[in-house]
Amino acid sequence: MASVRQIAEVAGVSITTVSRALNNDPSVHPRTREQILAVANSSGYAPHVGRRVTTQIGFAYTQEMTLAHPYDAAVLEGVVRGLNECHFDLVVLNMARDKRSTETYTQFFMRRGVRGVILRTMAATRDVCQTIANEGFPHVVVSERFESGNVNCIDCDSSGDSRRAVEYLIALGHRRIAFAMHNIPDRDHLDRFEGYKLALCDHNMPLKEDLVFRQPFTLAGGATVIDMLMSVSDRPTAVFCADPMLGAGAVKRAHALGLRIPDDLSIVGFDDTDMRFAVHPTLTAVCQDARALGHEASHWLARMLMGGIEKSFQKTVTTFFEINGSTSALGRRSLSNDSSADRLREPRRETAQRAPLRVRSQSGKRQVVRAKPR
Q1: What is the CATH number of domain 47-155+292-317?
Q2: pLDDT tens digit string along 134-173?
Q3: Would you identify the CATH topology of the domain 159-289+320-370?
Q4: In the chain, domain spans
Q5: Predicted TM-score of the model (pTM)
Q6: How far is residue 235's CA from residue 63's CA, in Å, rounded to a whole number?
Q7: Which end of the chain is more exposed for a tag (fewer CB within 10 A), N or C?
């Protein structure tokens, strides 16, 4: 691990100049500062807190913080577990609030006493991740993919199983299939939207914008999707909710309106954890393990900082599609075949639960595994 003296020797400047550059002193020429920071990053320099080298890893958003979302909560759970295994600590950073306009991201992270950072981003702020990578600061981005080889990242490609989920609805006879996604695009939701469009295209079904709903990924957002869906003249018989909260909110609102799931409306959701089991009937869903993503990201970053592995990391993992009780074949009770509002207020018949079917891709073939009921 490099010291300020060693950085000064490599950069060919004085120790004082290195200290000033690391602390963002404006008297240091910008080119000299960039040179010093590049040497500091490449040599594994870690700031000291008091007399101790920090063991802190940062967790930061390049946009609005969404810690309350089940996905982020699960990622953080995995992150903490991975860091604990390597004896590192986690600190949540607010870059939008605390980063000074006159400092680089490396200077900001060093000032906050972190040795590396785990990043969450959206489509509009991906450039921040690229900038941090270009500065050479130790990092890993969770839930995003980059073509640039210097951005360390791990994500889950859900496009294939999203396509499979929509194809499953089509095989059940559904032709009016709605799609609900987060109103702020990110890689995950764009993957799922791409899978939806590809499935429609494969079956010569046109993409209809009036069946695509973009709402905040909250329970209220899911409820709004159902309200908007009910206002469409030729109502859909199925909907794919590409977010756990949208799916749960949709189910809750459908029950409140007296809709029978899946008799009146088939719902496919997306699940990062076990939320599909928290609603009735259990949601048919495309699933990923957000805890595993967080664990692998933090574990790699911590080991890299300890010098045990390569300083480059890009990985994409797969999802799986699980069939449960919220979907069924198109029948006479579908919304498109019955416009009676009174019938929707009739008492609901309980839907029998069944053991879920997990459909995975393996060597280009479909594999169906019956999972144990919970």
Answers
A1: 3.40.50.2300
A2: 999 999 999 888 888 899 999 988 999 999 999 999 999 9
A3: Rossmann fold (3.40.50)
A4: 47-155+292-317, 159-289+320-370
A5: 0.74
A6: 36
A7: C
